[in-house]
Amino acid sequence: MRIKYRNSIEELNRAVFSSDGNKAIGPFNTDTTLIYKTLKTNVGSAYNKHTGMFTAPVAGIYYFSFFYHAGGAHPVTVSLIKNNELIVMAHDHSTSHDGADNGGNAVLLQLQQRDQVYLRLGANTNVWGNNVVTTFSGFLLRQLIEGCNFNLN
Amino acid sequence: MRIKYRNSIEELNRAVFSSDGNKAIGPFNTDTTLIYKTLKTNVGSAYNKHTGMFTAPVAGIYYFSFFYHAGGAHPVTVSLIKNNELIVMAHDHSTSHDGADNGGNAVLLQLQQRDQVYLRLGANTNVWGNNVVTTFSGFLLRQLIEGCNFNLN
Amino acid sequence: MRIKYRNSIEELNRAVFSSDGNKAIGPFNTDTTLIYKTLKTNVGSAYNKHTGMFTAPVAGIYYFSFFYHAGGAHPVTVSLIKNNELIVMAHDHSTSHDGADNGGNAVLLQLQQRDQVYLRLGANTNVWGNNVVTTFSGFLLRQLIEGCNFNLN
C-alpha cells in the first residue's frame, strides 16, 4: 500500500504519546518521578516507560495534560517538570472526611529538541495509580523551524 | 467563494466534536451511556447525540477529554470506552461532608475507522448534568494512512 | 536559515497561547475576569495579559482547557465565556471539612475572527492563584476558510 503524507507520519512516529500508571504510588519521603508503564498510545517511543521521561523529538509547541485520583488520607502534589523547571502543578490537602480527591492540569509548552518533560510526585504525597485513573498525555501540536523568531511574552 | 485547503476541511467536517449534557443523570442500577444533547461544536456529526457514540470517520490519533460535576451523596464513576474496552476513568467516593465533587480525564487514542468511543456512567453513581459543567470533547489530531507500521509499545 | 512551512508558522505566531495566574484571587462581590499575568507560551500575543482576553486571530476550531485549585472555605465558579455567552463552567461548594478543591473543564469552540474568550470568576467565589496551579490554555486546532458550509448541529 502506498504511503501518503510521509512527512506528517514520520513526525507522528516520534511525538505522539499517552500513558497511565498501574500501581498505587507513594507516599515516599522524597520527590519521585512518576513512571507510567501501560501506554495507550506511544507512537515512536517519545515516552520512555522505564525512566518516565518524555523527550521532545523535535522543537515545537506541545500540549500536555495529566489527571490523578488519590485517597484522601495523604496530601497530593503532582508537578509537571520541563528539564528542571516546575511548569504546572496540581495538589490537594489530606482530609479525614473526604474519601478521595481528583485533580489535574494542562499546559502548552514550547520545547526544544531533546527537552525532557515528566511528572513528579511530591515527597510525602500519594496518588492512586492504576492503568485507567491516573494518566499523562501529550502531543506535538506544531513543529517549529529553527531560525524563526517568535514573540514570547 | 473559493474553497482552499479542501482536504483538511473535509477531514474537519467529519471529525471535530464537543458536547455536554443538560440534565441530572443517575444513579441508575446498571451502567448507562452518557448522551450529550447539547453540542457546542460537532462539525460533520461524528458524535451522535441520540446514541452518545462518537464514531471515528477516519483512522487516526484522537484526543478526548471529559469533565464532570457531581453531588457528593453518591459515588461517581465515568469511564471512557473504546468499543467494549475501558480506556480511562474518573471516579469518586460518596461523602456526607463534601457537597460536591469534580473530576475528569483525558487520553490520546489511536482509532481505526468506525471505532466507537463513548462515556459510560457506572451503576449506582451519578453526575450533575447540565449544559455547561459535565462535558465531553474530542478531536482528530492526526490522520493515519493505511499500510504504515507504527511502533506501539 | 531558511524558513520552511511559512504558512503554518504564521498561524502559530498568532494563535497558540497558554497562561496561568500568580496571586490569590477573590472572593469579590461581583463577577470578575481572571487575568493571567505569567504566560508559559503565548506566541503572537493572542492572549492579552492586561485584559485577560484571548482574541481569535483567525476563524477556526479552538480547544480550550482550564484548571483551578481553591481553598474550601468559599465556593468556586469559573466560567469560560465566548464574547458574552457562557460556554462551560466548573464550580464547587464551600465546605468546612475538605481543605481544598480542584476542578476544571475543556471545550472545542468554533470561533470567528476577533471572537473573544476569557475566564470569569463568579461573584463571592475564589480560586487559589499562583503561577502553577490555576491555569488556562488554548490553541487553534484547525483554521476554517470563509465560504465553506459546516453542518453544525
Automatic annotation (TrEMBL), chains A, B, C:
Domain of life: Eukaryota
GO cellular component: extracellular region
Coiled-coil regions, chain positions: none
Compartments, as annotated in UniProt: Secreted
Keywords: Secreted, Signal
InterPro entries: C1q_dom (IPR001073), Cerebellin_Synaptic_Org (IPR050822), Tumour_necrosis_fac-like_dom (IPR008983)
Segments forming domain C1q: 10-147
Protein name (Swiss-Prot/TrEMBL): C1q domain-containing protein
Native source organism of the sequence: Lates calcarifer
